[in-house]
């Protein structure tokens, strides 16, 4: 069962089964949340995802779709671990996974918002390229 958590370890999570999607996102919000040029994400059905320790803080904003998106982060160290949108999925930030084997499962199937990709970031070979979500 894959596990993950924040930098300081105060908030922990696990999930069962395989991710239903794996994508890199180049949108501005994902760049800001991840603190880098893009965010590597794994999509997990909400009913397969469990918070196993701590209580994350939340921050909600309106996404490009006009619908609310909630970010779940550690109130102590500030790490964003996942976001939840209207899709019923948890969008787990792959860098918060504990195990290198679980991180290998996060190899992207798609890149989204590619028109916003930094010019020095190369296209992921074999990943679908999508201009929007």
Describe the structure.
With 133 residues, the chain is mainly β. The mean pLDDT is 92. It has an eight-stranded mixed beta sheet with strand order 6-7-8-9-4-3-10-11. A three-stranded antiparallel beta sheet has the order 1-2-5, with no helix packed on it. 31% of the residues are buried. The protein is globular, with a radius of gyration of 14 Å. It has one domain: glutathione-dependent formaldehyde- activating enzyme (gfa), CATH 3.90.1590.10. Strand 8 and strand 9 (89-93) form a beta hairpin. It is built from two helices and eleven strands. The termini are far apart.
User: Briefly, what CATH class?
Assistant: Alpha Beta
The 3D shape can be described as globular
- The CATH homologous superfamily: glutathione-dependent formaldehyde- activating enzyme (gfa)
SSE run: EEEHEEEEEEHEE
Rounded to the nearest angstrom, the distance between the terminal CA atoms is 28 Å
Number of helices: 2
Number of strands: 11
The CATH topology corresponds to glutathione-dependent formaldehyde- activating enzyme (gfa)
Q: Calculate Rg over CA atoms.
A: 14 Å
Strand order, sheet with most strands: 6-7-8-9-4-3-10-11
Helix content: under 10%
Describe the main β-sheet briefly: 8 strands, mixed
**Secondary-structure arrangement, i.e. CATH architecture:** Alpha-Beta Complex
What is the residue-averaged pLDDT?
Answer: 92
- Briefly note the structural class of the backbone: mainly beta
Low-confidence stretches: none
**How many separate domains?**
1
Strand content: 35-45%
GO molecular function: carbon-sulfur lyase activity; metal ion binding
Pfam families: GFA (PF04828)
InterPro entries: CENP-V/GFA, Mss4-like_sf
Family: Belongs to the Gfa family.
